[in-house]
Amino acid sequence: MDQISNWPFVFVFSIGILGLLVGNILFWANKKETFSARLLAGFIFSISIMSINFGLQASAFFLYFPNLWRCAGFVAFCGPAFSYLYVKSLLFPFKKINRKYFFLFIPSLLYTIILIPLYIKPASQKIIIIKQLLADKTLITLEPDVLLPNGWGVMARVLFGLTMTICQFVLIYKWKKINNNNTDNPTYKWACLFSKVLSLLYVLLIVEFFFHLSRFIDLTQQIIFSLSGVILFISLNLLFRPHLLYGMRVDFQDSKNDSYLKKEKKVEKLTNEQKLIFKNKMEQHFIQNTPFVKQGYSINDLSSEINIPVYLLSALINEEYQKNFNELINDFRISHITKLLNENPNYSNFTIESLSQKAGFGSRSSLNNAIKKNSGQTPADFFRLKNQTN
Fold first, then answer.
1. What pLDDT is recorded for position 209?
2. Nearest-angstrom CA–CA distance, 208 and 92
């Protein structure tokens, strides 16, 4: 364990621990915009574990714990998958990982299967292998102990990472095209910078792998120092610009994103991106403008106001709320009356009929029916209970 006194080892190990701490902060600390933050946390966890693992491979650690040798091999394929999903969640927000995205983690699974013969070897044989590799540390990244031709494993990881980074730039290009080259958006700038840093990492590793340009530092050291640089880069941005790392607020997105999410042909089921953006846009419109207070307010009115086709609104309301349009509007009208009563005590002197008209109900009976359907109560009992609760 004499490597502990080696400053590069201490530096890399410390940065790896820092990355794990930052990942935990991203995963647990933010209570509002959690999904993008947790995808970024997955990426940071992956590269931090890789950094620590590569650092330990350059020491005598695995001679004491041989059964942990190559145990983190699969993680290198997880990092690029998480980085792609993170950038996608920034530019085209979604709330959960769709089944189709799980294929991004297939390389990680395949590599784990390839490592099984090594995993099941007895500890004594692993120690012999580790001693041979430590005697010539340039062999560590070539992985002669893995059931692949020498160097194929690390090359597969680097190429997969570069491919995922290229896919990130494709997402960035799509967003830029949709928003008419609006390059001033801070989240767009962050997505570009994040992807450029990763692409630089992978390009440098590919050049070094093929051409061995450096005479002073081997590939293993280049990998761990590069990973440490990425961890520091993200950590500093988290410190000085934390809002960028959590993702773009949907209500701040340019409305032109709708053209990307809307399809010219009618669809039976909305994508997660469509649901999130359309739902947020509709609810923000209701909260800010209260258009439903107009009697006879229809889905066609809403469609023209927020520029979303009627068939997409119908699909959204059915899938997200399990209601029809009139039921949803009546819910917002009831909430509006409750808000009026809570914010201004004078409204408590209004009759139920007056309140119903003020909220857009055509008659008192319409309000009665809507409240009874939701709660089984009369309007008087319902609003009295609401006032007591608040």
1. 72
2. 35
Cα–Cα distance measured from residue 106 to residue 310, given in angstroms and rounded to the nearest whole number: 39
DSSP-assigned states of every residue in 35-98: HHHHHHHHHHHHHHHHHHHHHHHTTTHHHHSGGGTTTTTTHHHHHHHHHHHHHHHHHS--SS--
Q: What does the pLDDT read at residue 322?
A: 87
Q: How big is the chain by its Cα radius of gyration, in Å? A: 28
pLDDT in tens, 69-90: 999 989 999 999 999 999 998 8
Check whether domain 257-389 has CATH 1.10.490.160, yes or no: no
pLDDT of residue 41: 93
- Measured distance CA(315)–CA(313) in Å, rounded: 5
Structure tokens at 208: 């070094």
| Range(s) within the chain of domains with CATH label 1.10.10.60 | 257-389
For the chain, what's the residue count? 390
The C-alpha atoms of residue 13 and residue 218 are separated, in whole angstroms, by: 18
Element housing 268 (H / E): none
CA atoms within 13 A on the CB side of 365: 0
For residue 298, give both structure tokens: 């229809």
Which SS3 state, helix, strand or coil, does residue 350 take?
coil
Alpha-carbon distances, residue 92 vs 3, 258, 273, 277 (angstroms)? 45, 10, 6, 9
Q: Residue 139 and residue 119: Cα distance in Å, rounded?
A: 18
Give a three-class secondary structure readout of 152-207: HHHHHHHHHHHHHHHHHHHHHHHHHHHCCCCCCCHHHHHHHHHHHHHHHHHHHHHH
Rounded Cα gap, residues 208 and 267, in angstroms: 48
In words, the CATH class of domain 2-250 is: mainly alpha
Q: Dig out the tokens for 104 from the structure.
A: 């991004």
Surface-to-core class of residue 343, CB atoms within 10 Å of its CB (0-12 exposed, 13-18 middle, 19+ buried): exposed
Residue intervals of the chain classified under CATH 1.20.1070 are 2-250
**E strand or H helix that includes residue 227:** helix 219-240
Q: What is the pLDDT of residues 105-126, one digit of tens each?
A: 999 999 999 999 999 999 999 9
Kindly tell me the burial class for residue 383, based on how many C-beta atoms sit within 10 Å of its own C-beta (0-12, 13-18, 19 or more): buried
